Amino acid sequence: MNLLLLEEADFIAADRVVLRDRRLVHMQDVHRVAVGDNLRVGRIGGLMGNAQLLRLDAREAELQVSFELPPPAKLPLTLLLALPRPKMLRRVLQTVAAMGVPKVVLLNSYRVEKSFWQTPFLEPAALREQLILGLEQARDTVLPEIIIEKRFKPFVEDRLPAMTQGTLGLIGHPGDYPPCPRALDEPVTLAIGPEGGWIPYEVDLLAKAGLQPVQLGARILRVETAVTALLARLF
Amino acid sequence: MNLLLLEEADFIAADRVVLRDRRLVHMQDVHRVAVGDNLRVGRIGGLMGNAQLLRLDAREAELQVSFELPPPAKLPLTLLLALPRPKMLRRVLQTVAAMGVPKVVLLNSYRVEKSFWQTPFLEPAALREQLILGLEQARDTVLPEIIIEKRFKPFVEDRLPAMTQGTLGLIGHPGDYPPCPRALDEPVTLAIGPEGGWIPYEVDLLAKAGLQPVQLGARILRVETAVTALLARLF
């Protein structure tokens, strides 16, 4: 946790917060804070700034806070991601939040196991928890938007074309395709498939919606690694 | 597992192998293979090729194998990595093997907790297990070399200068430094710090050994994410 993220409910005054949950435990056990210490804080969806620890006991911490810095810029990106298996989903959500992706569509694919859609990690509160961990890691305050699309074809045919308009549409896909471009400034819509990849029918439909396959070389990467590698290369 | 990696002990003839361990379970449970199916195989440290499943029962699988393809090229890179916490270490080892890093130095740092050095995951067999998982994922056969350096100063002062000679020496380090370069062809020595980063004394010693700090932006990434992002950007 490189940034202590504050919720509206934490505030007892405009410049005072009281914390009682895992953030209190983390401050004590990992940061080993003492009264008078300064910490970096951020207001969810708002500015970042500093806090001074006023009071600390086993039950709660009180901090005086001030906010002056904007959070870092997001990437100009919409990420379409075939729903990963639950364990991977949690890590990928942290990663995309940490790397500054503003919008993620979790999408079905032929190779997404049906059981993946049953995971409790897709509940709004569980999604939010992982995103917050990513924001705390990277020092950002703005939650990415997560859109869940359980049906591939209607999404790709009916809603994706409008989403990709005015963006460079790319599919990260192993094979005999052009290399993934580097250091772009323009907005991008990027689709990353499941373990095993999109099937040819899916690549065709994505292409009709304006996305072209690009590759990162012969090595097949896990979804989480592919997400990070593609983003680091694109921007 | 995108490549079935074969050990010398698996061979019962020049073109025949018998498998009994987790690879048998994986072939049955994940790939759901049947007699006659073809699989991609690789010989550890050698060529890649194809296998045909000749015989399969609950206890073992027999395959006919042939080898004709060289494994993909490695990156021209030596990676110095402050020893991550055990859980992260396992994933990072898989990631570096998958991405084609040929040589990794696991290094001490002021911010590496002493207990991390006690983990059983540093045993040679445990390191090898994680590296194999990475090679199987990416389709490579050549194990990276892992060097363990429990003492920072003697390594950086006495052995690192010879290691960095003829390479571009870089430290991935958040702060007011030049941006990490892109799309290099030349050999690189890259140092990545622990959670919390190298301390200034360590950055100074690394700089004296020929490594200069570069940054990836304001966002602070987890070690595993930073490794992937830096490699994807450098090469």
From TrEMBL, chains A, B:
Q: Which Gene3D superfamilies match?
A: 3.40.1280.10
A single GO cellular-component term from the record reads: cytoplasm
EC?
2.1.1.193
**InterPro entries xrefs:** Alpha/beta_knot_MTases, RsmE, RsmE_MTase_dom, tRNA_m1G_MTases_N
One GO BP on record is: rRNA base methylation
Which intervals hold domain Ribosomal RNA small subunit methyltransferase E methyltransferase? 73-234
Task: List UniProt keywords, sorted A-Z.
Answer: Cytoplasm, Methyltransferase, rRNA processing, S-adenosyl-L-methionine, Transferase
Q: Where in the cell is it found?
A: Cytoplasm
Pfam families from the UniProt entry: Methyltrans_RNA (PF04452)
Gene Ontology MF: a single term:
rRNA (uridine-N3-)-methyltransferase activity
Which reactions is this enzyme annotated as catalysing?
uridine(1498) in 16S rRNA + S-adenosyl-L-methionine = N(3)-methyluridine(1498) in 16S rRNA + S-adenosyl-L-homocysteine + H(+)
Q: Tell me the function of this protein.
A: Specifically methylates the N3 position of the uracil ring of uridine 1498 (m3U1498) in 16S rRNA. Acts on the fully assembled 30S ribosomal subunit.
Q: What is this protein called?
A: Ribosomal RNA small subunit methyltransferase E
The upper taxonomy is: Bacteria, Pseudomonadati, Pseudomonadota, Gammaproteobacteria, Pseudomonadales
